[in-house]
Design goal:
It is built from 11 helices and 8 strands. The chain has 390 residues and is α+β, with helices and mostly antiparallel strands.
Length: 390
């Protein structure tokens, strides 16, 4: 009986050993490893595309097990940046997620294709298995802080160049409105309609080119500021194209049905929004330096003239012009100045107060500071500098 028990126990241990050996043969050695690299491939029509290849061993997992691979991006930090205390996991932005089955204890997955090489930075990769539940991490470094920052600034400069193409287009659109729609004319001839359609085609081609050019930048969407610049620029391009189309449609209507007042409001509204958006991108609006200097001089003379009973015509006309010509940040100054001058003129000379005069002079001094801070030469230099970057 004792020999039977021993024989039975020995057989059980041999069976268990066989299972263990069998499991080792099927599942391989335990553990997930990660390798990552950028690879270029020439696809159809000789187009070169880029991929981030992630592969490695996947031992210790059941055959046909599914892995989840996450790809993140983290902007590299300077060595002395306090954010270095934050784990890369907590300062990364998710780019893509993919799943794949292991085969012969290995796995491989391609992220892409991309039109451009991945921008410099740190690519944080995780490989997750559910059975057993494990997470393996890896960082693919494609450049440090300086490389990533240089790339970002280069792209921002290129997008600015595209954005600054909108302002000349607006001048073209406004001129088209003034020359062809605002003035009372008879119904548009077929020849003029053809010219208008050609004009619209040119505006459309330029705006489409702006949007297409911006579309190639940062396709990985890892730089928030670049995405903002792109959205601003393409939004302006779409808006000016739509405005041009509205004007051409109005030109085809009888003059009495064109609703010129509404069209003018649309143009003015676009101008204000455009200038605010471009200013946020670093655009410095050029303006008539001499007009500002002469206007402030005339206002000071008007305030000192105790016999003046109305705002001088040159001042009123200049304020209207400056409302359109000055940078957006000065709109409120011009509006306040015009309102206070109207109040000043309304009072009799004996009723005018030093306080109101001081308020008006404060606005005048703001404009005089503008001559030093934002001259026309600065605006021209800004465009020249951006052109050199391009």
């Amino acid at each position: 009986m004792m020999n039977y028990v021993k024989t039975y126990q020995l057989g059980a241990w041999l069976c268990l050993l066989a299972v263990i050996v069998s499991a080792g043969a099927v599942y391989g050695q335990e553990g997930i490893t990660i390798n990552a690299a950028v690879q270029s491939r020439t696809l159809a029509q000789n187009q070169v595309k880029y991929f981030i290849i992630v592969d490695g061993a996947a031992g210790g997992l059941p055959a046909q097990a599914v892995l989840k691979i996450n790809l993140y991006y983290a902007f590299p930090l300077k060595d002395d940046d306090p954010a270095n205390n934050i784990s890369i996991k907590n300062r990364s932005r998710i780019l893509d997620t993919k799943r794949c089955r292991i085969k012969e204890s290995k796995y491989v997955i391609d992220f892409g294709p991309y039109n451009n090489t991945p921008p410099p930075g740190s690519y944080y990769i995780t490989v997750t298995s559910d059975n057993p539940e494990t997470v393996t991490e890896h960082v693919l470094n494609l450049g440090g802080f300086q490389e990533a920052n240089d790339y970002r600034e280069k792209v921002l400069a290129e997008i600015r160049q595209q954005a600054f193409r909108i302002e000349p287009l607006f001048k073209d659109v406004k001129t088209f409105f003034l020359d062809n729609i605002a003035k009372p004319v008879s119904a548009t001839s077929e020849a003029d309609q053809k010219i208008a359609q050609q004009w619209l085609a040119r505006i459309t081609a330029i705006t489409n080119e702006v949007s297409k050019t911006c579309g190639v930048y940062d396709e990985f969407r890892v730089f928030g500021v670049i995405s903002t610049y792109k959205n601003t620029t393409t939004g302006l391009a779409d808006s000016i194209k739509s405005l041009a189309r509205v004007l051409v449609d109005a030109l085809l209507m009888p003059p009495a049905e064109r609703r010129i007042d509404i069209l003018k409001e649309k143009i003015d509204s676009f101008r204000v929004g455009m200038e605010e958006d471009l200013s946020a991108l670093g655009w410095i609006k050029p303006f008539n330096k001499e007009l500002v200097a002469q206007t402030t001089k005339n206002i000071r003379s008007f305030l000192d003239d105790k016999n003046a009973v109305s705002i001088p015509a040159p001042v009123s006309k200049a304020l209207l012009a400056l409302g359109e010509e000055l940078p957006p940040s000065y709109y409120n100054t011009i509006s306040l100045l015009a309102a206070n001058l109207a109040i000043w003129a309304k009072y009799k000379p004996t009723e005018r107060t030093d306080y109101l005069k001081g308020v008006i002079l404060d606005s005048v001094e703001v404009l005089e500071c503008l001559l030093h801070d934002h001259s026309q030469e600065n605006g021209e230099h800004n465009h020249e500098k951006e052109a050199e970057k391009k």
